[in-house]
User: Fold this.
Amino acid sequence: QVQLQESGPGLVKPSETLSLTCTVAGGSVSSANYYWSWIRQPPGKGLEWIGYIYEYGRTDYNPSLKSRVSILVDMSKNQFSLRLTSVTAADTAVYFCARGFGESLYGFSFDPWGQGTLVTVSS
Amino acid sequence: DIQMTQSPSSLSASVGDRVTITCRAGPSIDTYVNWYQQKPGKAPRFLIYAASNLQNGVPSRFSGSGSGTEFTLTISSLQPEDFATYYCQQSYTPPYTFGQGTNLEIK
Assistant:
């Protein structure tokens, strides 16, 4: 059973870089079938897909964040990470990592998810 | 981006009630819709894929339907553990987008 766990600082100053890591247990980030994803949820609001990494380093990002985001994978540690630069208060959110997968017949889904980690942007 | 609009945004119901949540997509996305359940402080749980297919382990009181631009999630007889927030997600093309959520509360 695959489990994901986010880790990283809970407080980031405005204009700095948010960095989070997702550790995967019970599965491998080197699997070609999955898309290792980041999704966020501002307090009291809905879910926003940030992006994913797949196929040994290919990435796709939400255009709304593309200029500021990067997702990397570390196969030796079975982890993937999120970097979001030039953060503002609008980036305050719970950040989830998730495993994504897709089939042409059924579409693209996220399952399972990590528990999420709250990142607050404040000076 | 494909817009997903859920209604209602909140809903009060009692144990045993039948409830339906609607999600409208723009533009049409065939049956490429998923549904998730989220409880406070927890990660979303994957319930339904491709509009009407229950994920393994999801109780049969949950069902989904729809195609094109209108989709529904129905819970046939509410149980205490079903009170949560529900999200639809378009699974058709990136950027993958979610509805704003429906908060299902105990009446």
Remarks:
- Chain B has a mean pLDDT of 97.
